[in-house]
Amino acid sequence: MFLAGIALLMVSCNSTTNLGPYISITGFTQGTTFSMIYQSPTTDTLDLSGDVEQLLANFDMSLSTYIDSSNISRINRNETDLVDEYFQVVFDESKRINEISGGVFDITVGPLIDAWGFGRGGKLDMNQQVIDSILQYVGMDKVEIVDGKVKKDIPGIRFDVNAIAQGYSVDLVSEYFESRKIQNYMVEIGGELRTHGLSSRGDKWKIGVDKPFYGNQAVGSSLQAVIDMTDKSLASSGNYRKFLDVDGKKIVHTVDPLTGYTKPSNLLSVTIITDECITADGLATACMALGLEKAKEFILQQEGVDALFIFSDDDGLFFEWMTDGMKKMIEDRK
């Protein structure tokens, strides 16, 4: 349940309202885990686990690159150019974030991710010649969707939407819950989440942000901050859990699609809060690629977006930067 630097701190239990009980659903999807808590809209126990599993299965059949028969896999192999609704939504939001971020968020960056050893296969011997040969297949300016069909400048271009798809799946489940008249819920998939209404304790949902030190795999054991939130979505991105150690040097998994190189940075963790989780997910990845100072400027230009950045100095000490809106959501730690 506790991935990507986010930990759910409370466990829902009995309801204290005239609605039904709070119900917990957990499971696996998209190569990760999910955890959902919702209050039944009637005094009966409304079990939506089967519906949720089917929704997520349909989602995977659209956007999972690990399923050979998915829509995105078939598009990547040029077996079809037709896109479904899920692909269209993710493409449109990815294109928007690509444009406002100056191109650092790019769902065609997959070949570079693989070449650096963070995807399928092993790491290549990276040099400028190898990078240049791969960059011809990278760039959202080389793809578009026209009348429901993907148009690629080069057939070898392929899509990988892992940096934004989980956020979108959170939105889809949340919207389904609301269609079933559910007022109070928390939906978390792979660490990206969305909340609405109140927890079973009758207050806002409490979300923990992990302290981002390298090798920290024990999610929830060492917290940097606790956020009180409701009616918002949250996503995080960071380099401190996913990196390669090559000859004693850490190679982070953030790859700049403009240069083709990995991007070391003192920005260790980004947490974004906004209305829709698809947007929060994409913006968190974009900020990691931008680096600390450019990410600050970028976030302050976005309406309805709050952020918490955790970064380090040369001595390894942790520091925080956050928007004014985030300050109001962070619990007092004194």
General description of the model:
- The protein has 334 residues and is α+β, with helices and mostly antiparallel strands.
- It has one domain: Roll (T-fold), CATH 3.10.520.
- It is built from 9 helices and 15 strands.
- The chain has an 8-stranded antiparallel sheet with strand order 2-3-6-7-10-13-14-15.
- α3 runs parallel beside α7.
- The protein is globular.
- The N terminus is likely disordered.
Approximate shape: globular
Overall pLDDT metric: 87
Question: What is the total domain count?
Answer: 1
In whole angstroms, how far apart are the ends?
Answer: 28 Å
| Total DSSP helices | 9
Oligomer kind: single chain
Radius of gyration: 20 Å
